[in-house]
Write a structure and sequence with these properties.
Order of helices and strands: HHHEEHEEEEEHHEE
Distance between the termini: 40 Å
Number of domains: 2
Number of helices: 6
Structural class: alpha+beta
Shape: globular
Helix content: 25-40%
Length: about 240
């Protein structure tokens, strides 16, 4: 009973925080990866680097964290000295995007993390916690990668996350350690059909999703290609 009550409370809080404080039209504006806002933040990052001898305006994270969320932009270091305000679509101002830096060693580049993916994963983790931390497995997809039995977990239908690239409803997978990830196989398959560069088996191919797109595939496992040039999970 306590677990059920806690689950309901968490869902209600999530819905309340999502809905309150913003008219529908304004919330829609907070969910668009505006190019001009990316450029503004990129310019601010570049100016900060120049003024500080190469330092980056980032928050401190653990070194073993997901590479796509490893270097979040710290707006307190660039606002208002290098840019007037935090972008309206940033998490810090009620938006759905976390501004992050990629390629920090060679060419620090501003990208976005779609936090709706994190929310989709959180919903699965909440249900998993309500089930005593267990996620029944329905299929083995790869070494240490599994499809979980959503019905056994109490979901009426398979939980998904909306792709920032294609708009598809992407499934989620779980590892042996219980970590939940977005499965980008469908998006990668489509991207491979158009990719003209050279790829090798064993290479993490997720960069083909974001090299020309503002959003990175955070909360995902590494992928590579097989002999048929199809995306497969990259075994460690």
């Amino acid at each position: 009973m306590k677990k059920t009550s806690m689950l309901i409370l968490l869902l209600l809080i999530s819905a309340f925080l999502t809905a309150c404080g913003y008219p529908q039209s304004e919330r829609a504006g907070n969910q668009i990866p505006y190019e001009d806002q990316l450029i503004t933040v990129q310019n601010a990052v570049n100016q900060y680097r120049g003024a500080t001898g190469g330092l980056l305006p980032i928050k401190t994270r653990e070194m073993d964290v997901d590479q796509f969320i490893k270097y979040p932009v710290d707006f307190s270091k660039i606002v208002p000295d290098y840019t007037a305000e935090v972008p309206t679509n940033a998490f810090e101002t009620g938006g759905i995007f976390q501004y992050v830096l990629m390629d920090v060693e060679e060419n620090p580049t501003v990208k976005l993390v779609d936090l709706q993916s994190a929310e989709a994963i959180r919903s699965v983790n909440v249900r998993k916690s309500a089930n005593g931390g267990q996620a029944p497995i329905s299929d083995i997809l790869a070494d240490n990668v599994y499809k979980f039995n959503h019905k056994a977990m109490g979901f009426s239908e398979e939980p998904t996350a909306v792709s920032p690239y294609s708009g598809r409803n992407l499934p989620m997978v779980i590892t042996g350690s219980g970590d939940v990830y977005i499965d980008y196989s469908m998006d990668l398959y489509s991207a491979l059909q158009e990719y003209e560069g050279e790829l090798e088996p064993g290479q993490d191919i997720r960069f083909i999703l974001y090299e020309d797109h503002p959003v990175v595939p955070a909360y995902s496992l590494p992928y590579t290609i097989n002999e048929e040039n199809e995306p497969v999970f990259l075994s460690e």
